[in-house]
Amino acid sequence: MVTKKGFFWGIICFFFLPVASAQDSVIFREDFDTNVLGWDEVEDPAYGSRVEEGVYRIYLNKTQGGWQINKNFFIDPEHDFCIEAAVTQENGMNDQGYGLIWGGAGSDNSFYAFLVCSNGMFIVFEYAGKYVSLKDWTRHQSIRPAGKSNVLSICRSGNLWNFSVNGQQVYQCASRSFHGNYLGFMVNGTMQIAADYLMIRQDGVSPFLIDRPINGYKKENLGPSINSPYEEVMPVISADGKTLYVSRYHPENTGGISDCDIWYSVLENGRWAPLKNIGQPLNNMGGNAVISVSPDGNTLLLMNTYNPDGSAGHEGISLSRRTASGWSLPENITIRNYVNQNMYSSFFLSADNLTLLMGIQGEDTRGGQDLYVSFRTDSGFSHPLNLSNTINTFGDEITPFLAPDNVTLYFASDGRPGYGSCDIFVSKRLDDTWIHWSEPQNLGPEINTAGWDAYYSLPASGDVAYVVSSDQSFGKSDVFKITIPESARPRPVVLVYGKVLNSKTKSPLSAEIVFSDLSTGKMLGKALSSPVDGTYRIVLPYGKKYSFLATKENFYSVGENLDLTKINRYQELERDLFLSPVEAGEIIRLNNIFFETNKSELKPESYAELDRLVTLLKKNPSMQIEIRGHTDSDGDDNYNRQLSEARAKAVYNYLVYKKIDPSRLKSKGYGETSPVAPNTTAKGKALNRRVEFFIVKK
Description:
About 5% of the residues lie in helices and about 45% in strands. By secondary structure, the chain is mainly β. Strands 1, 2, 3, 4, 5, 6, 7, 8, 9, 10, 11, 12, 13 and 14 form a 14-stranded antiparallel β-sheet that branches. Strands 16, 17, 18, 19 and 20 form a 5-stranded antiparallel β-sheet that branches.
């Protein structure tokens, strides 16, 4: 982040104190041989910066005022540390300061500064809405003139901060609270400086790693079909792993190379097709990116808002749905009492489309940006809830990704020990409060680098991740794929896919899919089928019994169910969903009706299915139906007929109990006389054991 601020200093006397101790463990060192950390590189007549020739060169052309460049690095401010940098003034004014800033909060421009002048003077101050002098301009013989390197260091020892130049302590004061973890350089007046290195030392700081973080996995560059000499960021992979969305800075963008557009690629025969610009209405003259794609592939959560004419709106999020002719004009999403005091934000929509995670700076944020959760309401999403201090730190927590198991959270943080300026971590949700989490674990050096790591996306299989890196890229940042260590993978899920079809004509239908807890009837999520071919996909975490069905006006849903209580690995299952026209003569199967073996008492998990039938009958007060019971061919014919009659009667009695007029209902048992499949296999027998209803009159 780049910020600007001007200052004036007064000159007072010199003060000297003893030399302080230093820390031995180097937790970070930047030698500026490359710009893997992404330091700001700016070209402007008034100011600029670039990494070149093994230094970070910064210039300012002003007679008054200053400029700072900073990045977020992890330092534990409550324990002893040392920050050190070697900086040379190459040209310019000798009576203006340059040096280090630290303990800064990037959002509100609060920081501490330790500056020297080539005329032999130094200053220490704090800026937090106003200038506070800790040590006014003071001369010291250790400060070298322009053209020579000055090594500046700030070290905490106990409750003291110690300031040194070229190994000689020049000042000491009581330690103070950090505003944040931003660290960098400042120049004032007209001058050019070159930073040779920046280093942080602190003992007892090491990443809390996942189990077995080293597995020999290598990041795989997705190649020239996806990556270019330009910048590819924010990869989002579909649940089935076959569609990749990327935000890209490219000359062919709608707004040119200065802003990002949404591009996408489809996996064809194991290879990614060349990226295509997704076009309007999703791309406009502003910054555009996909934040999340629903498991069905038919809904996109998008960065920023859109005006009614499709032009760029403001900071926020919006939603677009697939239509028969393409993507819909994005609809802006409302989050109740949404406040973000930071210039950046990041979001993620869960696989069930009911939970929104965000990285923002709210009113109760602990550091820079914290992670929050918000839940879907009738009008949008609820007031954001802070995920608690187990997740959030003094630094920034950003780019959340909740795995399809709805439990495993991946996010980036610069407020924890890591391998670079920002690392990716994993934590597990412990209960439904969303404030109790396992201690976040660093994903290790095969995923995290010495640079800035964020943007993490994985398919439902949970075995690979798509990340962004500038290491071994074609130009700037590229998209890579890497295998996830076993200990960092989410819980297994089942990807259920198929088509929504008209049961009478077998033609595809656009419909809403609803999946619920079969035992409680609680709705757990929603999806959409494609308006083009009726295809759908939903992701179901293991550990429950589920019912799921498609819904559409003037159709009755034929429900399906799955028992995932014993699933322990990722699976993909095909299930077509049928919608029966609500018209006379239709026979509609009640799939989610359950009885004990050889008994006619309804199990409680049958009630949700039967209540849908009650709703249908109440919406159509003239409708008359016949409830039909059927069995397979096992056992005595007479026994099967009696059992089927008893089961049909049980459904009849439930409907009467729910205030449906008995004159509209009939029940009949057909025993084994009307099979819909051969009785020679277990699958066929299961299909023949059923309860259905026949619409006598609509």
